[in-house]
Amino acid sequence: MSQRVLIADDEPNIVVSLEFLMKREGFDVQVVADGEAALQAIAARVPDLVLLDIMLPKKDGFEVCQRIRANPQWQAVKVVMLTAKGRDTEVSKGLALGADAYVTKPFSTKDLVAQVRQLLGLGTA
Question: Which residues are bridge partners to 30 per DSSP?
Answer without folding.
Answer: 6
